[in-house]
Amino acid sequence: MKRTTLPPVLLSLALSLASGPIAAQILEEVVVTATKRATGLMDTPLAVSAYDSSALDNFGIDNGQDLASRTPSLSITGTPSKISLRGVGRPNNALGSDPGVAIYTDGVYNTEAGLMEYNNLFDLERVEVLRGPQGTLYGRNAVGGAIKLVTMGPTPTWRSKVIAELGNYDYQVLQGVMSGPITDQLSMVVSGSTITRDGYQEEVTRGEEFDDRDTQTLRASFKFHWTHNWYSQIQATKVKLDRTPSIGYRPLDFSTDYVQPVTDIDTGAVLNLPGTFPGQNFVNPHQDYPQPNAAVRDESKTQADVTPSEATDTQGAWLLNEVAFGDYRVKYLAAYSEYEYDRYVDNDAINGDLSNFNWDNLFLFGLPVSALTGISQTSPRMTDTIGQQADFTSHDLQLYSELPGNLNFVAGLYYYRSDENQYFAVEEENDDMMAVYQFLGGLVGRNTSDENWLYEGQSQLITTSKAAYGQADWDFTDALSLTAGLRYSQDDKRGGDTTFVQWVGDGYISRDVEDDWDSVDWRLGLNWRPLPGQLFYSTLATGYRSGGFNLMKPTASTDVDEVAPEDLLSFEVGYKGALLDGQLRLSGAAYYYDYQDLQVIRQDVVNGVGVRTFENAEEATAWGLELEAASQLSELISVGGNWSYNRTRYGDFYSKDANACALGPLAQGNSQNPLCTDEQNLEGNTFPLTPEHKLNLYALLNWTWNDIDMQYMLNYMYVGEQYMSPFNLDEYDLVDAWDRWDTQLGLSWDTWTVTAWVRNLRDERNWVFRERPGTVSRNLGVSSELTPPRTYGLRLEYQL
Q1: DSSP letters along 135-180, please?
Q2: Gap between the Cα atoms of 141 and 615, Å rounded
Q3: Rounded Cα distance, 474 and 408, in Å
Q4: What's the pLDDT at 88?
Q5: Long-range contacts: 636-640, Cβ < 8 Å, 24+?
Q6: Distances (CA, A) of 219 to 109, 123, 182, 240, 346
Q7: How far apart are alpha carbons 696 and 190 in whole angstroms?
Q8: Is there a cis peptide before residue 91, judged by omega within 30 degrees of 0?
Q9: How far apart are CA 118 and CA 132, in angstroms?
Q10: Using CA atoms, how far apart are residues 322 and 694, in angstroms rounded to an integer?
Q11: How many whole angstroms separate alpha carbon 278 and alpha carbon 287?
Q12: Distance between CA 313 and CA 315 in Å, rounded?
């Protein structure tokens, strides 16, 4: 992992492309439904990036991170999945929070970003990324934008595709899709996928592999035309994931010194019990560990004493009815889905069988702790268990006009409900260690679990959302048109939690919370088409994210943290056009965001446990530029790319940084240090997961040799440096810039295609997401994630 600067040659090329275009033959065929009407991408007055199935194949876009690397202003992490668009993202994955970027699959809203990781996106017809608030048409939690996944639907003629793929790390793929008419009125499509891969992370003490892949998906859809003007479509999906995940990439040196009681330099108070860092209530498991952290030498290595597991089981169905009568269409979409997730991982990243941790070397009242307990050597065995179950229901009733005049509209009513349960626990599986915890806790009158829990939390949440919306387009001259939209949203959340934290309070604490919010959002747009193929647009719009809760926070308080709704005012101008007889195409956008009560997350320490705490930043702003361009240089060569610049800044925002306090001055006995006592001024800091610069460049060569169609692709991606928390501390939060090269060569003849591909040519792994060091062990957490290593493979496709 190294600091990457943008190569001057590539910067020059990027600027030349930015003043250049998007090739007609590449973009003319992409029809999008970003405005809930079918329009050409270049005639859609929104900042939209779209990838049809050919583009997904040509650029090797298999998952959310591949999509983010090639899309302006978009960032996506893996596990836990988080999406950020122009700096607007999901602050927390715990119940009570909401995403800032809405995900829709075939028009059905979903909060789980992980659905882009299951089947290499092989059966998608199109992916659309809509940047900017989309509240009037897409509703709840589209304050930052929306990602639309459109699957391949039933076709009027029979079509089929079979894909087999092999690669390094024993990568194996088998996929198929078949579509066509069963009768004159009934058609269908069915697709299935199975993907397996060995792990990217090596456990060095037991020889296991983590961070592997094993997913299966199945989808079936049937479409029936009752009459010429009325059809119904029903679709069912099933996803099963069962893999060995990583336990986090944690390349920091172990803190192996024994931690003795520390006295506050100002008050003289004792700040910790033996074995725990000041302010903490779990022991540092790395004390006296005999081996160095293997990840320091090689970030792909780790150590553990349990085999992690991760399982996802999701299924869903939707029913669509669409009826046309006269100049109007009515569309009703009902959906239901179930989601179940379980994860079990090693928390401490050591093999306890090798640990030398010994209470003989920790002292209390001048005596070894072992002399007081009769327990000497113990092997820490901390594990994390996560579980979630959820049911989602939605109904969307829409009315479209297709009037012959210059005014048309879309209007609708929307209902959504989710019933969710979440579980998280940290367990010490060594009974001897728990016996010492009970002894130490008893000395100071603090509770300890009889069931080996260091932390246990359960939460439940019911969310309902109702909305009425409408948007109209008025062509008041041949060149000018006006867009106006309005949406009323009402959100209600009811939930609660039960938590236990070692040495905190008197045992289990239960809390209940309920609140509701509403908002009126609007959109005004002015579009100018001075010449055919030329579009200038401007938009003034608002966005809204409902308030939320911070459930399962480890605290003795009977109150639940709550954040206020987030409001956004957005102004955007853009251009889309064809130049040089359509051989050059260019699209660009400039935007300015003004936030009120931006919802943010920060790493905090509450009762010795690292937690993510909700807050509202009272004021914040963002502005940026986005350019997408491509050129058909000749019949053989096309080039293109995109670039984005995002400048995000907090305004009036103060917050304590308890994590940095615990890692720094508190560990030295300085609890009165301003870092521990004062709120930090975060004005001028940048938003997390928002690199200022992103660049994507590609070249495609197409030629024919002996009746074989050949295609070669070379792709360069650059992601600028970014921070992982609002505090913007370089030591803990800064992730360096990185870049990547991908390439592939394809050969097509008759109904066959063979593609050889290599991704990450230089075999450099870089941070996708990096947690701050934990306050218990001083190392990174289980969610810290790297980009994949170099992978290569061969793909065989048969298509009729």
Answers
A1: HHHH-TT-SSEEEEEEE----SS-EEEEEEEEETTTEEEEEEEEEE
A2: 17
A3: 7
A4: 87
A5: 636/701, 636/702, 636/703, 637/699, 637/700, 637/701, 638/23, 638/25, 638/26, 638/699, 638/700, 638/702, 639/17, 639/697, 639/698, 639/699, 639/700, 640/17, 640/21, 640/22, 640/23, 640/26, 640/697, 640/698
A6: 17, 9, 17, 12, 34
A7: 34
A8: no
A9: 27
A10: 41
A11: 15
A12: 7
> For residue 504, what are the CA distances in angstroms to 498, 608, 696, 741, 777?
13, 9, 50, 50, 19
DSSP codes of every residue in 343-359: EEEESS-S-GGG---BG
Residue 274 confidence (pLDDT):
95
Token readout for 362 is 């920790």
Tokens at 604, concatenated: 């905090």
Rounded distance between C-alpha atoms, residue 172 and residue 793, angstroms: 9
589 confidence band (pLDDT: 50, 70, 90): very high
Please provide the DSSP assignment of 59-101 as one string.
TT--SHHHHHHTSTTEEE-SSS--EEETTEE-S--STT---SE
Query: Using one digit for the tens of pLDDT, what is the confidence trace for 707-732?
Result: 999 999 999 999 999 998 899 999 99
Q: Model confidence over 574-583: pLDDT tens digits?
A: 999 988 888 8
Helix/strand/coil for 29? coil
**What is residue 675's three-state secondary structure?**
helix
Termini Cα distance of the chain: 44
Residue type for position 234: I
Give the Å distances, CA to CA, from 168 to 298, 591, 791.
19, 43, 6
* Number of separate helices (H) and strands (E) present in the chain: 11, 45
325-365 residue pLDDT tens: 999 999 999 999 999 999 999 999 999 999 999 999 999 98
Cα(646)–Cα(690) distance, rounded to whole angstroms? 7
Secondary structure letter of residue 295 according to DSSP: H
Pairing mode, strands 722-723 and 734-735: antiparallel
Q: Are strands 201-203 and 301-302 parallel, antiparallel or unpaired?
A: parallel
Q: Which two tokens stand for residue 590?
A: 């400039």
Give the model's pLDDT for residue 504.
84
Distance CA 626, CA 644 (A): 4
Q: Which residue has the tokens 């130049």?
A: 579
